[in-house]
Amino acid sequence: MKIFSLVVVIIQGQYAPTASVPDTTTGEFREVSCWHCDAVNMTQCDMIGEMKPCLGENDVCMIEVRKREGELEQICMGCKSRRACLDNKKQNARGRWRNHQCRPEPWWKKAPSVCRQCCNDSDNCARDFVLLNDGFGPFDQSEWNEDLLL
User: Fold this and answer.
1) How do residues 55-66 score in pLDDT, each as one tens digit?
2) Which of 19, 54, 119, 134 lies 20 to 30 Å from 79, alpha-carbon distance?
């Protein structure tokens, strides 16, 4: 009986329902998909990444861009739960202004920077966001703090 229960749990996990959000123009629900990649830049992200449907609670697309000494170091995109994504995004402005984790300005080279954003208005929202400024993402912190969720 324990083996049967384990098989049922495994099967249920594999067939998690696809996440959906309301479409603001039609009022109907649409399935959420996000571009997934973990790469050093957008060129590599486009080569190795892929569009995947979001499952279960993962109903938004997350974006994380890391820089060290002003140079792009890592881009990560994929599905995430709204709460977890927003909790990560709050880290953008932790600490005093000089010590914020998110320092997207191209001239900032004093410390590492990690900027996070959440979106779900289109399947390509994360990719489109990072493609700003030739694949570096926005250079203005206000764009990283903007609410891009439906």
Assistant:
1) 999 999 999 999
2) 134
- Could you tell me the CA-to-CA distances from 150 to 20, 28, 102 in Å, in that order? 11, 12, 23
* Contact (CB, 8 A) for 81 and 59: yes
Dihedral sign of CA atoms 108, 66, 136, 19 in order: negative
**Please, which residues bridge with residue 78 across strands?**
62
Round to whole Å and give the CA distance between 21 and 66: 28
- Residues 65, 88: contact at Cβ < 8 Å? no
Residue 3: both structure tokens together: 């083996």
Number of Cβ within a 10 Å radius of residue 9: 10
What does the alpha-carbon distance between residue 50 and residue 18 come to, in Å, rounded to a whole number?
Answer: 17
What is the average pLDDT score of the chain?
84
**Residues 60, 138: Cα–Cα separation, whole Å:** 19
Give residue 150's pLDDT band: very low, low, confident or very high (50, 70, 90): confident
pLDDT of 76 over the 80 cut = yes
